[in-house]
Amino acid sequence: MSAVQRIALPARKRSTSKRKLRKWTLCLLASPLLLVLSIASLFYWTTQSYIHANLDDIRSAPVAIVFGAGLQKGGRPSRVLRSRLDGSIELYRQGKVQKLLLSGDNRTRYYNEPAAMQKYAIEHRVPKRDIILDYAGRDTYDTCYRARNVFGFTNAVLVTQAYHAPRAIYVARRMGIEAEAYAVPNLDQFPLLQMSYTVREYMADSKAFWDVQISHRKPYAVQETEH
Predict the structure, then answer these.
(1) Which pLDDT does position 206 carry in this prediction?
(2) 4: left (phi > 0), else alpha (psi -120 to 50), else beta?
(3) What tens digit of pLDDT does each residue of 157-186 get?
(4) How many Å apart are CA 19 and CA 70, to the nearest integer?
(5) Residue among 104, 47, 99, 52 nearest 81 (CA)
(6) What is the per-residue pLDDT for 28?
(7) pLDDT digits (tens, 9 = 90+) for 72-97
(8) Which residue has the higher pLDDT, 196 or 215?
(9) What b/e sequence results for 118-152 when a residue is b if at least 16 CB atoms lie within 10 Å of its CB, and e otherwise?
(10) Which end of the chain, N or C, is more open, meaning fewer C-beta atoms within 10 Å of its C-beta?
(11) Whole-angstrom Cα distance, residue 129 to residue 148?
């Protein structure tokens, strides 16, 4: 072996080691992404038969569960939340449900999703007697847990957008609720808003999978009352 060959050999080894390091680094970075996408795919493919965009395809149920989706300045429901409320009001008017369970966040007196949702429904001629408020629906898991274990519903129509419906159905049915979803229109007319909600949904899917399949946690409100 010549002197030139002896000098070149360590350089090739260093180059190979760098390629292996880059390969393993890419694998480590890709693994969480693949896990997130796998969970989202699981939710999607196991729930499609329970999600309907046509009101006529929805079977009657005792209650429509409406998930909170934020308030605007001034305390009015956000665009996303108004779309969900409009869908639940439509179900009520058509006689598909008898009650509306309006579930949202009210962890402080300055932020009250259920009260804003109730006001909107009453403004659209839903009698107050047919509205049930859940003030501790901090996320989809909490809402479904409380719908089953606090309010006692075992059959419901979930009212939400199509991007959120797979997670909502997956969680609800594993809580023991025979649930279908009325998928109200997505936010196609607001592409940036739709993108932000969709990206957030991928992360929320992973948290929901952990809560349902691994931690089996009690909702925050239930935990607080036990302390």
Answers:
(1) 83
(2) alpha
(3) 999 999 899 999 999 999 999 999 999 987
(4) 47
(5) 104
(6) 47
(7) 988 899 988 999 999 999 999 999 99
(8) 215
(9) bebbeeeebeeeebbbbbbbbbbbbbbbbbbeeee
(10) C
(11) 20
Q: What is the pLDDT of residues 34-45, one digit of tens each?
A: 777 777 888 899
Calpha distance 64→121 (Å, rounded): 13
User: Taking the alpha carbons of 198, 202, 207, 208 in that order, is the dihedral positive or negative?
Assistant: positive
State the virtual CA torsion across 30, 36, 39, 43 in degrees, nearest 10: -140
Long-range contact pairs involving 69-77 (C-beta distance under 8 Å, separation at least 24):
70/113, 71/111, 71/113, 71/116, 75/112, 75/116, 76/116, 76/120, 77/113, 77/116, 77/117, 77/120
Q: Which residues contact 187 (CB under 8 A, 6 or more apart)?
A: 79, 80, 83, 161, 193, 194, 197
Q: Where are the domains of the chain?
A: 52-226
Is 66 in contact with 100 (CB distance < 8 Å)? yes
Residue pair 64/92 in contact (Cβ under 8 Å)? The answer is yes
pTM of the model: 0.81
